[in-house]
Every structure is written in C-alpha cells, then in structure tokens.
Amino acid sequence: MSSDSTGVLRQQFAVPFSYTVAFTHDVFGTANPLLAQTLASREPSRQHKVMVVLDAGVERAFAHLQTKIHTYFSEHSHNLALVRAPLVIPGGESAKNDPAVLSLLLGELQACHMDRHAFVVMLGGGAVLDVAGYAAAITHRGLRTVRLPTTVLGQNDSGVGVKNGVNAHGAKNFLGTFAPPFAVINDFDFLERLPFRERIAGYAEAVKVALIRDLGFFRWLQDNAAALAQGRAAPLAQLVRRAAELHLQHIAQGGDPFEQGSARPLDFGHWSAHKLESLTQHELRHGEAVALGLLLDTRYSVLEGRLPTDAFEQVAQLLAALGLPTWHPALAQRLPTGKLAVLAGLEEFREHLGGDLTVTLLTALGRGEETHAMDPAVIEQAIMDLQARQHQQAPLLPHSSAG
C-alpha cells in the first residue's frame, strides 16, 4: 500500500493462480490414480468432500458410468468422500438458459454443506461446465472445481480456460465470473462416443487459435484434415493437446486473463458466431458458428487489404476438408429495415467486453491484429462473397475493394 501527496491510499496486490491440465484415458478406472491424486494434491492427508455434476447426455452414452464413479470413490475413500450420487443435469445450451438448473445446483451445494475446501467435479460438455462452474463460483464466493470436459470443444478450448456463466435476460453469458479451476482432466475416451457432428464442430476452435497464434499448427491441420474428418483417435488427441496448449499460453501470456481491457483475441470470429447461434435458435452448434465467423472475418481481412486472397482460400478449404460449414443462410438474414441481422452481433460483442469495440483480424496465417472498427458495407460484401463462393464452389478472385 502506498500514499500520494494528497493522502489518498493506493492498495495493490497480486494473487497467483495455478492449475494443472492433464491428459489421460479411463479417468474413473480403479487403476488410474490421476483424479484422486489431483484432488488430494494440496492436502494429501485429508478426506475431501466431492460432488460430481454429470451431463445427462454423457450418462446416456456411457451406460455404466455411474457405477464406475461410485466404485472409484469407494476405492479412494481414504482421500475422497462422495457427498451424494452424481447430480445429473441437462447438457447443451438449455442448461445455461434454464434458471431452474442453476437453482438446483445451488440448492444441492447448500444441502450437501459444500465449503471452500470441497470439490465440485464437473463432467460434461461446455454448457454443463459453464453452469456448474458458475454455481460453484458464487457459492461461498468460490468452491474448488475440477473440470472433466467430454467434448472436443471443451477439451481444447473452453474447458481449459477461466470463464463460466449462464445466459440471462436474452443475452449469452450475461451472468458469469472469472474463476480458474483447481484442475482440468481431459479423458480422450469420452470423445469416442461423441456424436460425429459435435466432434467436428470442436475443430473450429483449433483452427481459430492456429490462425491467430501458430502457422505451424495451421499447416499440421491442413496435413491431417482428412484423418481428422474421419475421426481418427491419434490425430484428434494431438489436435486437442496442441490447441489446449495454445489457449493456455494466451491466457497466461496475453496480459489480460480476466479481460479487464477491450482486447479478446481468443474470440476471433466470435462476434458473428454468437449472433448466428441465436439467429438459428442454436440449430448451429457453437463450433459451426465459429467456423462461419472465422471465414467471414478472414474474407473481411482480404477485402481490407490486410490478407492475401490465397490465405482466405486456404482457410475455406481447410474448414471444408474438416467437415465444417462454409455457408449458412442466417448470414444473409435481414431485418424488416433491410439491415443484415448478423450486424447486431458487433454491438453485442462490444457491450459484452465494455469499452471500445475490439475485433481481431488477420494480417497473415498465424498472426492477428486488433482493430476498433468494422465497416458494415465491407462486412456485407464479405457475406456476399461467401454466398457466391458457396454457389460456385470455386476459389474467389481478389475483390476490387481489396486494392
């Protein structure tokens, strides 16, 4: 603490955050000590209270999962105490839209007398991690959480980050907190029964982080696109690990892990993606909407003269090779005024950040830069170009406005 010449006291302190991200198979196998060791890592002689929150879709996909969880905690009862049977909640965006799900979670956390040294182990897709993480973060100002993401999107992006939240008042993630987890455990076995569409959708966030941070990873994605589109396990595991590493690097080294400024590079392509999700009533998966957002902003970068056309074609061809969409009619949807409906996503994106609009665009594959304005006329041209490309199924030539 310091004092200036006017006598005003200035308080300043830093709080370090540290968490592990592990990769494994069969996390609830009795021969796998990883989860038990993770939960007991700071206080190995203590018996830790644990509540497991389980995605209903994951429970359906793995018929004996509940039994395995109970067996695992019985085997490690000297360190772990399961406070109740795993609490099953719905997965998908409905979990974040329904206040009753949040209320149920909070009620169970209170009924089980969970405290700040207890653990909430969250097993499921990104929406379940979001709502359960938010419930844990606002209970006693923060319970310990361990995330077990079960989707590609969760394992390579959202599950390794520091955010959680729920939708409210018609806005995505209107309520939420920044709350780093105690740990993240990525079990590749959960990806095996993931619906194929969901698996493919998760690739979009890997393309995103490659485009803004790592040309080498982008080239690797190009080289392995066919194998990834087929869902092969080995390249999928490599994709998850490298994308997770890049996301973690940015969180730690980007200078703004809790987004107190206006920049948000990891949301490249997301200003339109979030709007496309709502315009399609979430018929578009998040990753599918992100793929469209990446392509839109990449084309916009070309039209502004920031990026060569051949780079755009490489992005479009990679997304298509991975099985991701390169066009959706919602991009061209218009309001009664004639204005493109997706343009409202710009102001919603700015409002969510606060401060100035800050959008990441590309100057090269693997390198992004920030801009504080986007021209609606150029956005419209970019959308028209994407639509034309879809109809032609042919590479786009440089547009006259690109210079």
Number of discrete helical segments: 17
Strand content: 15-25%
End-to-end distance:
54 Å
Give the fraction of residues assigned to helices. 40-55%
Radius of gyration, taken over Cα atoms and rounded to an integer in Å:
22 Å
Sequence of secondary-structure elements: EEEHEHHEEHHEHEHEEEHHHHHHHHHEEH
The 3D shape can be described as globular
Mean pLDDT: 92
Major sheet: 7 strands, parallel
Class from secondary-structure proportions: alpha/beta
**Number of strand segments:** 13
Low-confidence stretches: 397-403
Provide a concise account of the structure shown.
45% of the residues lie in helices and 16% in strands.
Tell me what you see in this structure.
The protein is an alpha/beta fold and 403 residues long. The chain has helices at 34-39, 56-61, 65-75, 93-97, 99-111, 126-138, 152-156, 196-201, 203-213, 215-223, 225-229, 233-253, 270-279, 286-303, 309-322, 344-353, 376-392, and strands spanning 2-3, 9-10, 20-24, 48-55, 80-82, 87-89, 119-124, 144-149, 163-168, 171-178, 183-187, 359-364, 367-371. Helix 5 packs across helix 6 and helix 14 crosses helix 17.
